Amino acid sequence: MEQLSSLISFAISPLGIAFAGLGGLVLMQARANPLLPWLALGSLVFAASLSRFVNEWYPNPPSFFGPIDMLVGNGRPLTIILLAIMVLMPVRYLRAPAGLPPFAFALLTAHLVIALKTFSGGSISFALLSAVTTGLIFFIFSQVGPRWIGQDGDIDRAIVAVAAAITAFTALNAVQYVLGPQALAVANGRFNGTTGNPQHAAAFLGAGIPALVYVALTRGFIWKLAALGTAAVAAYFLMWTGSRTGLLIGAAATMLLLRRSGAVAIGTGALATIAGLYVILTTPPGDFALDRLVSTENTRGGVWAALWQSFQNNPLTGMSLTGDRLGFGESSWLAMAATTGLLGLLPLLASGAMLLKIATQLLLGSAPTRRAQLQGDFAGGVVVSLIIGSIFEAFLLSAMSAATMLLLLVGIIGVRRLDINARTKCSARRPGAQPLPGTAQRKRLYPPPRPLAPRPRP
Question: Which residues contact 215 (CB under 8 A, 6 or more apart)?
Answer without folding.
Answer: 159, 160, 163, 223, 224, 227
